[in-house]
Amino acid sequence: MDEKVQRTVDGEPVRPDFVPAAAYISPDYVRLEKQRLWPKVWQMACREEEIAEPGHYYTYEIADESITVVRQQSGDIAAYYNVCPHRGRRLTEGCGKMGRFHCRYHGWKWSLEGQPVEVVDRQDWGDCLKDEDIGLVSVKVGTWGGWVFINMDPEAEPLEQFLEPAKSMLDAFEFDKMRYVWRKSVVMPCNWKVALEAFNEGYHVQTTHRQLLPYFDDMTYSAAKGKHGMFGYAPTALFGLPSPRLGPVKGDIRKGLYQFNKEIWDTLKATTTEEMLAAGRRLLELPEDSDVYTVYGAFAQFHREEAAKNGRPFPDVPIETLMAAGIDWHIFPNLVFLHQPTNVLFYRARPNGDDPDSCIFEINVIERFAEGAEPGVEVEHGADWARVDWGLILEQDFANMGEVQKGMKSRGFKGARTSPVQERAISNFHATLHHYLADKN
Fold first, then answer.
1. What contacts 128, CB < 8 A, 6 or more positions away?
2. Hey, is 349 helix, strand or coil?
3. Mean per-residue pLDDT for 170-192?
4. pLDDT attached to residue 387
5. Which residues pair with 46 in a beta bridge?
6. Contact 435, 4 (CB under 8 A)
């Protein structure tokens, strides 16, 4: 970590087993992130399906900046700073469809390509108002896996390079062919990093989600992957049998695998699907003494068959990729997702103004669908997470977040003692963050 940043936040260096508390609670971090992180990094703005046709736009807000992502007449995607070059009014809000950009203050207009097409009473300026001076200012834009990313730094590395090694490891899942199932957004009483990290490790399952332990071995590994991080379960971990934490590992793996999927479906409605639940139910047709390889092989086959019944395409993901990709990835800085061949649960966390104790947190599920069967989905907004029906698992996670934020402000808390084995993605997140926050000028 750069010494100047270290002095600025008055914290200790990040280690695999330690993250300073200041990163979560200090207003200085909010200021530094606004200056050196958000304007310099690739970040997910929306999904391509949200701007499917020419004129469709999505307004992405981060810190003090607002970016409009728009589908141009050519079908290309562009992004512009959401500001009128005349007097600074924002041009768009939310999402929708437009024929051109229009300022509601004085009526100036621009094409979807960002060029001025109407300046009211332009003759007032004579020859001193040139088109090149009043065009909308573009922002770098790129796509991966159906997500649209933006970067305000014109000198930024290409998105494809930024995403590695995640991109190469995960392309086979074809996330771009998935569509929204449900979407929710809420303001959480914690720092955006606290919210994100609640889903960036599996170590908490043994306490927070203890009801899941009868169905799988919860021990995880966590790894730094360049700027990004991930976690997964050991190849020897068995879904369908109880965690060793509960005692001797024994039971009917057929029933356990079905009950695991049912528990997840009933309490999360994500990371599994109705087809996976049906596949688990069919496992009960196998002999009770079936070995683990037979059960897992049958589940994979049944899953494909159930998906085919509903016309849902199934990606061809090599078994080696499935094993290496784990179950959860953090794409720096603020995107986390849990992936399966036919579905993804993804989260985005953003600062809520300048308050280090508040963030905007979004939860989304996407799945593979038969062509034409994609549902129309709106975002469900909630000002108070306790007043929205999230299901048991997310409610268990949310109950921790505000209490973590409060605890981190204690004089008795110096920093997070992250597990070098099961929480490596978190410490790597902060090491990468400090790299961006360092003043290199």
1. none
2. strand
3. 97
4. 80
5. 148
6. no
d(CA 379, CA 381) in angstroms, rounded, equals: 6
In a 10 Å sphere around its CB, with 0-12 CB exposed, 13-18 middle and 19+ buried, how is residue 389 labelled?
A: exposed
Question: What are the start-end ranges of the H helices in 85-173?
Answer: 131-134, 159-163, 166-170
Residue 315: cis peptide before it, omega within 30 degrees of 0: no
Tell which residue, 44, 16, 62, has the closest CA to residue 331: 44
| Mean pLDDT, rounded, of the chain | 94
Summarised one tens digit per residue, pLDDT across range 48-84 is 999 999 999 999 999 999 999 999 999 999 999 999 9
Specify the DSSP element, H or E, that contains 249: none
Nearest to 332 by CA among 169, 149, 179, 171: 149
Say if strands 77-81 and 65-71 run parallel, antiparallel, or are unpaired: antiparallel
Alpha-carbon separation of residue 365 from 7, 50, 387, 396, 398 (angstroms)? 41, 14, 20, 18, 17
Q: What is the DSSP string of 376-397?
A: P--EEEESSGGGS---HHHHHH
Radius of gyration from C-alpha coordinates of the chain:
24
Q: What percent of the chain has pLDDT over 90?
A: 91
- To which H or E segment does residue 230 belong? strand 228-233
Predicted TM-score of the model (pTM) = 0.94
Burial 141-163 (b: 16+ CB within 10 A, else e): bbebbbbbbbbbeeebeebeebb
Structure tokens at 223: 């790894």
Q: Does residue 6 surpass a pLDDT of 50? A: no
pLDDT value at position 5? 43
For the chain, the first-to-last Cα distance in angstroms comes to 15
Query: Taking a C-beta distance cutoff of 8 angstroms, is the pair 136, 81 a contact?
Result: yes
Q: Can you tell me which residue has the tokens 């062509």?
A: 371
Dist CA 29 CA 26 (whole Å): 5
Q: What pLDDT, on the 0 to 100 scale, is given for residue 374?
A: 92
Residue-level pLDDT at 235: 80
Return phi, psi of residue 95, to 5°: -140, 165
Provide the 3-class DSSP secondary structure of residue 271: coil
The residue whose two tokens read 């009014």 is 89
Residues 6+ apart with CB under 8 A from 198: 204, 397, 400, 401, 404
Taking the C-alpha atoms of residue 333 and residue 257, their distance in angstroms, rounded to an integer, is: 34
